[in-house]
Structure formats: structure tokens, C-alpha cells
Amino acid sequence: NGLTDKVIIRNEFIPDADLRLYFGAANLIVQPYKTATQSGVTQIAFHFEKPMLVTDVGGLAEIVKHGKSGYVCQPNPQSIADCLLDFCKNKTDFTESLMEEKKKFSWERMTESIKELYTKTLEK
Questions:
Q1: Which residue of 20, 106, 114, 122 has the fewest C-beta atoms within 10 A of its own C-beta?
Q2: 53 φ/ψ sector (left φ>0, alpha ψ -120 to 50, else beta)
Q3: How far is CA 79 from CA 43, 46, 103, in A?
């Protein structure tokens, strides 16, 4: 399709030290899974405040909110292409929503939840 000079495919493990290079260069993190449970890539994308395109498989749609932190599409080529085209044409800026959604996965939020659970346990 004449995209060879525009698309880089890396189908191997990327060392932690190099993650910032890949995520920093990306405009959209595309995860076209056919099956999944969760994905560490999603959490890394939140860390770098990068919008995502995920397929509606496993628990990915629970983490990525369509229209807030990116796109949730069906696991088929047409649905993925439609979301990619929407992103490219509309140049939607998800930054503000991503920053808000990212807070849900912070260490502070996790420790608050643990403290709350602990307190509830003591009350019983």
C-alpha cells in the first residue's frame, strides 16, 4: 500500500530502556488483539499519555474508554481501519481525558483503595 517508509513494525521484545523512544514517537498506540485478558502496553500508554486503539476483547474495553482515552473497536479489519481513519482525519486530542483517566491507575489511587478496604475490614 505504499506505506513501507511510514510504518515500522517491531515484533520482538522491546527493552524497558527503549520504551520511551517508541512511545514518544507514537501518535496512537494500536493494539489489534484477537484475544486478550489485559495488556501491559495499555498501562504504559497511559504513563506516556498516549491515546490507544484497542479491540473489544478481554478486559481492554474496561480500561480504554472509547472517546476518552482512545478508541475501542471490533476485532475486524474494517472497524480498526474506521477508527484509524477517524484519528487521522479528526486529529482528536485525547490529552486532557488521558490525564484524568491515568489517575485511576496511579500508586496513590491504589494505596487509597487498600487503606479503604483495610478500614472497612476493621469495621466488621
A1: 122
A2: beta
A3: 23, 23, 29
Q: Do β-strands 29-31 and 52-55 pair in parallel, antiparallel, or remain unpaired?
A: parallel
pLDDT per residue, tens digit, the chain (124 aa), is: 788 888 778 888 889 999 999 999 999 999 998 988 777 888 899 999 999 999 999 888 888 999 999 999 999 999 999 999 999 999 888 988 888 888 887 888 889 889 989 888 888 7
CB 72 within 8 A of CB 54: yes
Q: What is the pTM of this model?
A: 0.80
11-28: b (≥16 Cβ within 10 Å) or e: eeeeeeeeeeeebeeeeb
User: Interior CA angle at 70 toward 4 and 2, to 5°?
Assistant: 15
- Tell me the three state secondary structure of residue 109: helix
